[in-house]
Amino acid sequence: AAAIFNSAFGSFLGIVITPLLLLLFLGSSSSVPFTSIFSQLFMTVVVPLIIGQIVRRYIKDWLERKKPPFGAISSCVLLMIIYTTFCDTFANPNIDLDKFSLIIIVFIIFSLQMSFMFLTFLFSTRNNSTFTPADTVAIVFCSTHKSLTLGIPMLKIVFAGYEHLSLISVPLLIYHPAQILLGSLLVPTIKSWMVSRQKALKLTRQPKAPVKV
Length: 213
Description:
Layout: H1 2-26, H2 34-66, H3 70-90, H4 99-124, H5 133-142, H6 148-158, H7 165-168, H8 170-205
Helix pairs in contact: 2-6, 4-5, 4-8, 5-8
InterPro entries: Na+/solute_symporter_sf, Put_Na-Bile_cotransptr
Keywords: Membrane, Transmembrane, Transmembrane helix
Transmembrane segments: 41-59, 71-91, 103-124, 136-159, 165-187
């Protein structure tokens, strides 16, 4: 539930943050049709979620018996979205991105990813924090990750008709694979930390046996 809220809230927050960032970094104003954007995002994000929850109530028992391979289907669809988006972006003749700039973008994105994950880890493990080790793992991954499945439609809605849409999609195209790569590399380390931390907390909470005199 927290991950779904984080994803949806981050997408809607981006509608407000994006024009402000454009104004800050480019020094130019931008107008965003909020009504159109919210209605389109509602139809592409909220409505399918509501329909899915309604349908699930009626086919839940059937799904538990048959257990369709939704995990594999989801992975294939996500891979197809990444592939087609890459093709659409770099096949655009208007995109003007040299190799050096691309390398710089990759370096910046990996640095941002590591910085965000490190900061969220420090925040969730501070002394007065009430988060469990499992909560910390969820926070580190959920709060720093964004998906192309929401990012690309949002870019197309916010920047509809913009001739350089392919160019501004490049950071997101790199960000998504980067988080998958970093997540895969960090899973063993974070899992080991979580297990050891849980064992340590369990030992500290065990009541001490009375000492006989």
